[in-house]
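Input (structure):
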């Protein structure tokens, strides 16, 4: 499953066995094609729909224009621990 499919998974769970909220985790790397923009546009529209419908979610999708920047963002362990602390209450 990739970033594009996240909204479908949320929709499935929310309609059949809803959670109080959802934490969305994924990596999205920009490439030389327009695929990145297509995926982000789809996900953005779904996020707007979820927000208007009152579906609570945290966006943990990490995107970057290059592999080096993506690695930097992923390897930032302080942010990972902050996220774990935020949901482990």
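Output (sequence):
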């Amino acid at each position: 499953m990739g970033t594009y499919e996240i909204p479908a998974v949320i929709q499935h769970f929310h309609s059949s066995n809803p959670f109080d909220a959802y934490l969305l985790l994924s990596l999205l790397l920009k490439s030389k094609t327009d695929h990145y923009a297509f995926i982000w546009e789809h996900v953005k529209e779904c996020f707007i729909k979820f927000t208007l419908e009152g579906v609570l979610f945290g966006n943990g999708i990490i995107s970057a224009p290059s592999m080096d920047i993506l690695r930097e963002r992923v390897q930032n362990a302080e942010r990972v621990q902050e996220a774990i602390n935020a949901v482990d209450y």
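Notes: The mean pLDDT is 88. The chain has one domain: 18-87.
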